[in-house]
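From the methods appendix. Each design record in this collection lists the tokenized structure first, followed by the designed amino acid sequence. Records were kept in a plain field format so they could be parsed without special tools. The example shown here is representative of the layout used throughout.

RECORD:
FOLD TOKENS (185 positions):
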């Protein structure tokens, strides 16, 4: 069941791939839960690079980034170990199910999902610098058909906003996230 604005969220502490316990909701900051696809997903990597590039702005807005993947901790250490966010493994998709995050073949076939990736690949032209430099796994845990979701939660656990992607690159931009956080003030 998908969450909606105004819903109350109470999760036990989540454990990151670095074995750190993080409370959700965060008692002092907003929590941005990002449900990504699989570790090593080139579409997710592109989006997370844009988030990492502006992490100081996100933190200054009082937002804690928590990124979930339906991957194993080992896959995350291999493919997403250098992300500057709290990264959580959910290989059994328990949290994905709890929050109503879906899968869809149409989601990965939609041209809107691939245009940003192709543009980035052409611009990069073989240069290194990707946050996730290892190639995508051949058989990722949880499959390749996941859709993204974004959920912004206040310190009391109330959902301030949420977005469920219709395709693999349908998520909040940094500007959208910052605007949503600003409306809570």
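DESIGN:
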């Amino acid at each position: 069941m998908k969450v909606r604005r105004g819903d109350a969220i109470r999760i036990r502490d989540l454990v990151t791939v670095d074995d750190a316990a993080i409370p959700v909701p965060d008692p002092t900051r907003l929590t941005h839960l990002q449900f990504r696809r699989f570790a090593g997903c080139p579409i997710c990597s592109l989006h997370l690079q844009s988030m990492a590039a502006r992490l100081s702005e996100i933190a200054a807005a009082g937002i804690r980034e928590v990124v979930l993947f339906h991957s194993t901790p080992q896959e995350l250490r291999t493919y997403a170990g250098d992300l500057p966010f709290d990264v959580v493994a959910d290989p059994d998709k328990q949290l994905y199910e709890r929050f109503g995050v879906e899968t869809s073949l149409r989601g990965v076939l939609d041209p809107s999902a691939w245009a940003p990736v192709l543009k980035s690949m052409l611009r990069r032209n073989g240069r290194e610098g990707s946050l996730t430099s290892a190639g995508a796994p051949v058989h990722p845990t949880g499959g390749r058909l996941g859709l993204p979701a974004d959920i912004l939660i206040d310190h009391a656990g109330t959902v301030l906003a949420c977005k469920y992607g219709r395709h693999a690159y349908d998520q909040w931009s940094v500007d959208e996230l910052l605007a949503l956080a600003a409306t809570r003030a």
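APPENDIX NOTE: The beta strands are 11-15, 21-24, 30-35, 63-69, 86-89, 149-153, 159-164.
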